[in-house]
Design brief:
It is a single chain. The chain is an all-beta fold. 0% of the residues lie in helices and 57% in strands. It is globular. The termini are far apart.
């Protein structure tokens, strides 16, 4: 089992930047992929970015070139640097980790990101 604690959300003007962080504890040696998802009001939760233990990254088309995901395997943390934010990025952002056994994944409590125009 894994416990996730997220931080770094907030309110920012369009064009600004925010950095989200997520720290994992528990059975972290079982984690392969770490990532971020988001859910805007009235919409389904969607993938933002993921990164494997080996460092392979995957981004949603909507954030490619603006967001950068990184992780520290020794500290069991994953970060999301978000630049050039737009109001369309407003959502609750959730940290997610997936074990090597893909039947097991865990979610953070979510952190609100609001981008004003």
């Amino acid at each position: 089992q894994v416990h996730l604690v997220e931080s770094g959300g907030g309110l920012v003007q369009a064009g600004g930047s925010l950095r989200l962080s997520c720290a994992a504890s528990g059975d972290t040696f079982l984690i392969n992929t770490m990532g971020w998802y988001r859910q805007a009001p009235g919409k389904q939760r969607e993938l933002v970015a993921t990164i494997s233990r080996r460092g392979s990254r995957n981004y949603a088309d909507s954030v490619q070139g603006r967001f950068t995901i990184s992780r520290d395997n020794a500290q069991n943390t994953v970060n999301l640097q978000m630049n050039n934010l737009t109001p369309e990025d407003t959502a609750v952002y959730y940290c997610n980790v997936q074990f090597y056994d893909i039947n097991y994944d865990y979610w953070g409590q979510g952190t609100q990101v609001t981008v004003s125009s």
